Amino acid sequence: MPFNALLQELEERRVRAMAMGGPVKLDKRQAQGVLNARERVDYLLDADSFNESGLFATSSRPEARARTPADGKVCGFGRVAGRPVGVISNDFTVLGASSALVNQKKVKHVKGVANKRGFPMVFLGETSGARMPDRMGASGRAIIGQDSAEYQRVRQAPWASALLGNCFGHSAWYACLSDFVVMRKGATLAVASHRVAEKAIGLAVTAEELGGWKMHTRVSGLVDMAVDTDEQALDAIKHFLSYMPGHHNEAPPRCAVPADAGEACNNILDLMPESRSQIYDVRKIINSIVDPGSLFELKASFGKAIVTGLTRLNGNTVGFIANNPLQKGGALDVDACNKVVSFLVLCDSFNIPIVFLVDVPGFLIGLEGEVRGAPGRIINWVNALSQVTVPKVSIILRKSYGKAYLNMGGGKNSDEVACWPTADLGFVAPAVGVNILHGIKEEDDPVRFKELAAQIAQDSAVWGLAAVYETQAVIDPRDTRKYLIRTLEVHAMRLTNGVGQHLIHNWPTTF
Predict the structure, then answer these.
(1) Which residues pair with 310 in a beta bridge?
(2) Residue 352, Cα to own-chain centre: how many angstroms?
(3) What CATH number is given for 264-425+461-496 in this structure?
(4) N or C, fewer C-beta in 10 Å, the chain?
C-alpha cells in the first residue's frame, strides 16, 4: 500500500499519545474510582463528536518529549446535546498536567477558536501548577506572560469548570474565570498545595482546610456546587450548559414545556405562613412557579439568605433572585451581595431575563458586615443592576424594607413591579418603626404602641404603592406564573432578537 511506512508511524505515534501516563498510573486512577482525562472527555461529549487538537504535541524540552504525550492536556472540540463546545481536559498522569510552553499554546488555540466562532468552553481541572524547570529563571520568563489576554474574560461565550482533583495554577485560574464551577468532594482548589502553604505560614493545614469543597462552597463562594463523583460533576456541566446560549449574541435555547406545568402554582398560598414573622423556604415558592424540575440553583451553600438559580418558565431560560426568610430571616449580608452581583452578570451577559421574588427585612447590620465592606458591596449590587439590560421583573411577596427595596428591583430598577396583597412596603417592621419614630416601647404604653404600629402598618400596605403607580399590578399569588409568562412576553427583546447590551460582560468574575 502506498505510504505504508508513514501510515504505520502515524498509528504508532497515535497509540503512544493515547497511552497518556502509562498503564500503572491509569490503573491507579481506576482503582481510586476517578476518571482519567480522556474518559472525562468521552463522558462529557456526545458520542464520536470529539475532534482533538494537539494529540502529537509534546514538551518543548528534548529530555521530556518521550514522557509528555499530548503535553499533559487533552484539548479539542466536540458537542454536548448536539451543540458545539471547546474542551480542555488536564491529564494528571503526565507530569501532573503541569503548564508549559506547548500545552499553553494548545489552550490558547482552543479558547481563541471558541471565542471567535461562538461556543462554550469547558475546563476539566486537575493540575499541579507550573512545570519546573521550564518556568524558572530568565528562559521561563520568556514563556510566561506572552499573551496579555490570557486571563481576560469578556464573556463572549459561557465557560464552565470542573475541579476533579488537585487544582493549582492553571485549573485554579480558569475556575476563577468561569461562569459555573462544580467541585468533586475530595478535590482541592488553591494557589499552591497545603504542603507549600505549611512551609510558607509555619502552621499545619490540611488540603481540605486550605481549599476543599466545604470552604469553597460555604466560605469563599468560588464554587457553585459540590458533588460526589466525576460523573456527577460532568452531568452538572451538561445541565448548566442546557440553560445557556452558545454565545452572547444569541438568545438561550427554548425547551419543551412539561404537561403539568402550572399546576403547582394553584397551591402557592399553602407555602407562605399568614404570620409575617414566620419563616418559610422560598425555593418551594420558586418551584411552584417555574416549569417542574427546572430550578438549577447556583451557590446554594453560600450567602444562603438569598437564592439564585437558573430556571425555565414556559420553556424559556429565566434567572430567579429570591430572598429566603429561612436563613437569617432573609436579611442580606456581604456574601449575599456578592452572590447576587455574580448572578446578575451571568444573566445579563447571556441574555437571560431576571425575576426578583422579594421578602427582605433589609441588610444585616453589625460589625462583621462593616469590616467586610458591606456598604461597598451593597452599592456594587445596585451599580451592576443599573447596567443590566435584560428584562427585569420584581414581585414583592411580603417585606420590602429600606435600601434593600431598591436592590431587589424596586422602583425603576425593574421593568415591571408587581405585588402580592401580602406585600409590606415599610422602611422597617412596624414595631421597630414605633420605637424609632415615636420613642415608645410596648411595655411603656401598650395601647398607644398598638395604635401607632397599626398606623405604620396601614401606611406600608400595598394599596398605597399601587395608588401612586409604583407597582404596575397587584396579583393573586396563584396567578404568579401566568403573570410572569405574560409580562416577560411583553418585555421580550424583539428588536435585537433576544440579545441585550452586555454592559457588565467584563465585570470581575470573583466579585
Answers:
(1) 296, 319
(2) 13
(3) 3.90.226.10
(4) N
DSSP single-letter state for residue 336: H
Give the Å distances, CA to CA, from 9 to 4, 6, 16, 68, 428: 9, 5, 11, 18, 77
Q: What is the DSSP letter of 202?
A: S
Give the residue from 223, 244, 511, 472 showing the smallest Cα distance to 383: 511
pLDDT-flagged residues of the chain (< 70): 136-142, 194, 196-200, 427-459, 511
Q: Measure the CA–CA gap between 126 and 91, rounded to whole angstroms.
A: 7
Task: Compute CA distances 142 → 105, 147, 463, whole Å.
Answer: 14, 11, 68
Domain 4-243 fold is 2-enoyl-CoA Hydratase; Chain A, domain 1 (3.90.226)
pLDDT digits (tens, 9 = 90+) for 473-511: 999 999 999 999 999 999 999 999 999 999 999 998 776
d(CA 320, CA 240): 15
Asked if 339 contacts 299 with a C-beta cutoff of 8 angstroms, the reply is yes
Sheet order of strands, 392-400 included? 296-298, 306-313, 316-323, 354-360, 392-400, 416-419, 473-474
In the numeric block, which cell numbers belong to residue 387?
447596567
- Rounded Cα–Cα distance for residues 265 and 255 (Å): 20
